[in-house]
Amino acid sequence: MSRQAPAAAVEREHHAYGPDPSQYAELYLPRPRTRRTAVVIIHGGYWRAAYGAELGEPLAWDLAARGWLCWNLEYRRAGNGGGWPQTFEDVAAGIDALAAAVAGRGLALDRVAALGHSAGGQLAVWAAGRHRLPPGTPGSAPRLRLDAVLSQSGVLDLRRARELGLSDGAVDNFLGAAPEPHRLADPLSHVPLDVPVYAFHGTGDDTVPVELAESYVAADRAAGGRAELILVPGDHYTLIDPCSAAMAAVRHVLAGLD
What we know:
The chain is an alpha/beta fold. It has a single domain (about 10-255), classed as Rossmann fold. The chain is about 35% helix and about 20% strand. It has eight helices and eight strands; from the N terminus they run E-E-E-H-E-H-E-H-E-H-H-H-E-H-E-H. The chain has helices at about 55-65, 85-105, 120-130, 160-165, 165-175, 180-185, 210-220, 245-255; strands at about 10-15, 25-30, 35-40, 70-75, 110-115, 150, 195-200, 230. The protein has an eight-stranded mixed sheet, sandwiched between helices. Strand 5 (about 110-115), helix 3 (about 120-130) and strand 6 (about 150) form a beta-alpha-beta unit. Helix 4 crosses helix 5. The chain is globular. About 45% of the residues are buried. Keywords: Hydrolase. It holds the Pfam family BD-FAE. GO terms for molecular function: hydrolase activity. This is Alpha/beta hydrolase. It comes from Arthrobacter hankyongi.
C-alpha cells in the first residue's frame, strides 16, 4: 500500500482525551487550510487491538496536504480494554474532543465528516446517529455532531456480519453475546440517519462483503434517508491507499461537502 510522506505544509499534534494510552487523536492542521470540512478518520481492523491509528495516517497526511483539517482517532479495541461499552465511549469522547482541540487554536468547525474504514465505517455511522440514542446509553448526548459519513468498505450490517462469522467471529469478539449491545451498535438499527452516508465499497473486496453496504443503503433509503452506495475499483485496502482511484473518488465526495 502506498504511503505519502509527511507534507511540510501540515502540522501534527497529539491530543489525549482520556488516561488510557489508546485514548488519543492526532490533529493534522494544513497551512493553509483551504477546506471548510473537518475530517474525523476512524480506522478499522475488525475492532481488534492488533490494528491501530497508523492505518489512518496515510489518509490524514494526504487529505491535510490538500487543505482538509484531519483528526485521526484512536480508541480502545477488543484485546486492550475495548468492546462494549468502552469502544463506543471512546469514539464519542474522541469526536467531542475535536471541538476543544480546534477552539484552542482559534479555529472554527463549519462542517465535520467522519471517514471510517471497515470496522471504522460501522463506528462512524453509529457516531452520526448517537444524538438519537436513549439518555444514558454509551455515546449519547454528543457535544459535536457529524454532518456526513463516508464509509470505506464498512461493516454496516452487524447481524449479517455475525451470521457470516466474518474474521473468525469478530462481531461477537467485540460485542459479546448479549443482544442489547448488538442492537445499539448496529447501523441498521438506526435508519434513517438525518445526514448523508456515502458507502464506498471495493468491487474486489473479499474481506467485507459488499452485501453489508447494500443492505444498509437499501434500508436507509427505504426509511427516507440519503445513503448512497458507491462502487470503486480495488480490494479492501485500496480505499485507504491515497494513490488509488478509489481514494480519489472519496476525495471528490469530500470536496463536494464544502
